[in-house]
Automatic annotation (TrEMBL):
Signal peptide: none annotated. One of its GO terms (molecular function) is neutral L-amino acid:sodium symporter activity. Keywords: Membrane, Transmembrane, Transmembrane helix, Transport. GO terms for cellular component: plasma membrane. It is found in: Membrane. The keyword Disulfide bond does not apply. InterPro entries: Na-dicarboxylate_symporter (IPR001991), Na:dicarbo_symporter_sf (IPR036458). This is Na+/H+-dicarboxylate symporter. Its main location: membrane. It is a multi-pass membrane protein. It comes from the Bacteria.
Length: 399
């Protein structure tokens, strides 16, 4: 009998569905549900340990391969990511202030949105990362640019070979352990979310906001791919189709960093060169937050409207500009963006440690997976554009 081989997308969808069903089985003792939650937590710890190493392995070699124009490529990529994040934030604000008042009652309160506590793992193994994500990015930039400069001088082969082989080790680890383990990780996450019932209770109140947010994210990502397709003369529909595995993976993991290996394969399908995709994808997983800022701005505006608080453009413009910078340091993990944004909530009159701050965390986490999916999808649109910019403008000009 021929064995049916399931693709990654199919496995992820099955894991999501089974996780939701498993978490709803009320007759099961809690410790039974805690088993996949524990496995998921252990996997998450391992992933947190590997993420900085992944960034170093890919970004250092990616920059080092760019013996000419590395600084320009970094600057253009960063500018494009920040501009995309800002534009998405302002669009989200204008949609929110014009559409949300049609169905948000300013007398609504956060009371009654109670939920069961999430299940804790049966045990945990503390695995501290060698360095945090921001340090890994800075380290990779400095080392990669210096190796790139050395190679331009006819030197640097020893350092380049070391990081190249380190990159191969990371790739082997990802292909043999991380990617095969993603469905198990997702199953545990969704089982816990389903057990708490938080997603369902919150959506019963805010489902209209979420529908608009998700729709806006999809529209913005599609427009980004259309722009990328027009600029590079590639079919936008094929680019969007290729992104589906990355989008679904991000929904399940709620992590831009965890989606990097899948997103790299998507970029390869899109015809993006190895040196560009291995530089742009890990970098943008940290600095490009198109979907996250749409979620944050929409949720903040919704809460302000609910409590009849000011939503003036001047106030929100400063908040959006600051978020574009603050969220760059957000860890590529569930809830990272909202945690980085919390210290700046006082700019719009929200106490990050009060009731509204807690409500925003709950709202954001409910929709976090879709925002992350939009983030990583936009990363590949940037990669397609940067591939042409590098080979047509930066590299040719230097030659």
């Amino acid at each position: 009998m021929k064995r049916i081989k399931l693709g990654l997308v199919t496995k992820l969808l099955i894991a999501i569905i089974l996780g939701i069903i498993f978490g709803q089985l009320a007759f099961l003792p809690n410790f039974i549900i805690q088993i996949p939650v524990t496995i998921s937590a252990l996997f998450s710890s391992l992933l947190s340990f590997i993420i900085p190493l992944m960034i170093i392995g890919f970004v250092v070699v990616g920059i080092a391969d760019l013996t000419q124009g590395a600084g320009k490529l970094l600057g253009i990529t960063t500018l494009m990511a920040y501009s995309s994040t800002l534009i998405a934030g302002f669009i989200a604000y204008f949609i929110a202030v014009n559409v949300f008042p049609l169905f948000i009652d300013s007398g609504l309160s956060a009371e009654g949105i109670g939920e069961k506590s999430s299940l804790d793992p049966l045990f945990s193994i503390p695995i501290e990362p060698i360095m945090d994500v921001t340090s890994a990015i800075v380290f990779s930039f400095m080392i990669g640019i210096c190796i790139s400069w050395l190679r331009g001088q006819g030197k640097g082969d020893t350092m380049y070979n070391f990081f190249s082989e380190f990159s191969l080790i990371i790739s082997k680890l990802l292909n043999s352990l991380i990617i095969p383990g993603l469905p198990i990780f997702i199953f545990g996450n969704f089982a816990n979310l389903s057990y708490t019932g938080s997603v369902f209770s919150i959506l019963s109140v805010f489902w209209k906001v979420f529908v608009i947010v998700i729709g806006l994210q999809l529209i913005l990502v599609s427009l980004f791919f259309v722009i990328a397709g027009l600029y590079t003369k590639k079919n936008p529909l094929i680019l969007i189709k290729n992104q589906i595995p990355g989008y679904i993976t991000a929904i399940g993991t709620q992590s831009s960093a965890a989606t990097i290996p899948v997103n790299l394969e998507v970029a390869k399908k899109n015809g993006v060169s190895a040196q560009i995709r291995e530089f742009v994808i890990p970098l943008c997983a940290t600095i490009h937050l198109l979907g996250s800022i749409v979620t944050v701005i929409s949720c903040v505006t919704a809460v302000l409207l609910m409590y009849n608080m000011p939503v003036q453009f001047g106030m929100m413009a400063g908040f959006i500009a600051m978020l574009g910078i603050a969220m760059v340091a957000a860890p590529g993990a569930p809830g990272g963006a909202i945690m980085s944004a919390l210290p700046f909530m006082t700019m719009v009159g929200i106490d990050p440690t009060g009731v509204l701050g807690n409500l925003l965390i709950t709202l954001y986490l409910t929709q976090d997976s879709f925002g992350t999916a939009a983030n990583v999808s936009g990363d590949n649109a940037i990669a397609v554009i940067m591939d042409k910019i590098y080979f047509k403008h930066i590299l040719k000009k230097n030659n």
